[in-house]
Request: fold
Amino acid sequence: MNLDEIAPTIRADITKEIKRLLSKRPMSIEELKEETHLKLDIIKSVIKEIKTSGLNFAYLPGDKLFLPSIVHPGGHHTLSLKDRNGFTQFGFATDNHLCNRHARLDVLNAAYDRFVEEGITEVFNAGNWVEGEAKFNRQELIVPPGMDPQLDYWIENYPHRKDVTTYFITGDDHEGWWVQRERINVGQYAQMKAVQAGRTDLKYLGHVEADVELRSKKGSAVMRVMHPGGGSAYALSYAPQKLVESFQGGEKPAVLLIGHYHKFDYCYPREVHVVSGGCTCDQTAFLRKNKIGVHVGFSLIRIAQDVADGHITRLAVEWFPYYDRKYYERRFG
Reply:
């Protein structure tokens, strides 16, 4: 008997049990056979099936498989941005929290309309592009419970513009809660679902952070896209400054794009151009309870690089602020 001949309910129970075992400790296929008393071909079929579902498999010595509750951070990618009168430019729109009723799709769509007007073909997103699900936010969700309804909403509603590619990372909160609970590489899974739905403009860079090598004619500079942790500080630049100060010598990037704090700021600690990206979501009940304000909007960033070695010689950040919906109701309603 193979997996296809097993009743769907029994098949689901087998899959659930193998996931449970691999979540507890690393096991080889032979150990799974001894534990479950299933045939090897059935176990191999289940493993093959759940591998393609986006689960966060780790391969350990001794031919052992494991489902850890973390995704290894990082990623490295190389991009050659189009030169425009001596500058390269890109968009930055982050912390969208789609599926939360406070999410501002109007602002996010306005961002991409502006990017198209400016000839921008690359946009970076530093995480929390969906709301995720926890005990304290379920009352604010506008889709049914579960990961797939939120990812389907994101694929259908996240702006799609001709010739514009969005490069995104995942945070370890919000969409990252599924990494911790379901042990799934949610970024890879989201991109896979997007491609299946016909969207090839959404490119996953990595979990928590990713380095992007910006190539110039004869050199390059590293830009890090990051979703850090911790709460907002009274001074907007405090958390970014402490973050850059913590980077090990020789490891700091030339440009750092960060999300998470829902604040816009630009600072230059340790000669690193740091742009905090704000958000495209109004203040939620959780943020209001914790006395955390938000800066709603997006950024357009232009850089110039030295032709000899690629280091950053000029950088300009243009911030496009928006306000909560009530502002527009009072002003134009």
User: Anything to note?
Assistant: The longest helix spans residues 8-24. The chain has two domains: 3-66, 76-332. The CA atoms of residues 7 and 282 lie 47 Å apart.
